[in-house]
Amino acid sequence: MSSTIGLGVPVPKMLPVTGAWTLPFTAYLLFLSNRVVYQRIKNKQFMGDKLKSDNTKGTDNTNMDPLFLENRCHQNFLENVPLAFTLAAIAELNGADRTILNYALAALFALRIGHVELGIRGKDAMGPGRLLGLLGSQAFLGGMAAYGTYLVKGYWGY
């Protein structure tokens, strides 16, 4: 599948797998962003990452600062996904197997959702999804970087 530029020169779609995964990842990012906005409006706290009240001390989710909790969910997503997409795009541009990329990005999506919904938002902000999401995301980053390097091994003479 290709599109045309200028006088009809066909240009192939260069990142179809990475491009296909932008919608679910962006939709979830918007969902996380709206949770932060909701807490800001609900608590009339428009700056900062914590509420001003002192009744939100402790690690129990019933006492935890809801703005801080939602901020951390949002920030954790943003700490991992942009680099993951960059590594996936680099691998795809260098000829990565599209099936492998699809499965890898699907796994990352599930891991990031699990990290938030079954981890940070779990009991005491330490649900089982938190560790699984952390380790899985790190495995994705390391694995995708290694895969991208493997794909260009000829550049280094191997």
Structural overview:
This protein is mainly alpha-helical and 158 residues long. The protein has helices at 16-43, 66-93, 98-120, 128-151; strands spanning 2-5, 9-12. The protein has a two-stranded antiparallel sheet with strand order 1-2. A hairpin with a 3-residue loop joins β1 (2-5) and β2 (9-12). The mean pLDDT is 88.
Unreliable segments of 5+ consecutive residues: none
- Strand order, largest beta sheet: 1-2
Order of helices and strands: EEHHHH
Largest sheet: 2 strands, antiparallel
Q: What structural category do the secondary elements indicate?
A: mainly alpha
Using the CA coordinates, give the radius of gyration. Answer: 20 Å
Number of helices: 4
Helicity level:
55-70%
> How far from one another are the termini?
32 Å
Number of strands: 2
Beta-strand percentage?
A: 5-15%
Overall pLDDT confidence? 88
Query: What does the overall shape look like?
Result: elongated
Present the secondary structure layout.
Elements: E1 2-5, E2 9-12, H1 16-43, H2 66-93, H3 98-120, H4 128-151
Antiparallel strand pairs: 1-2
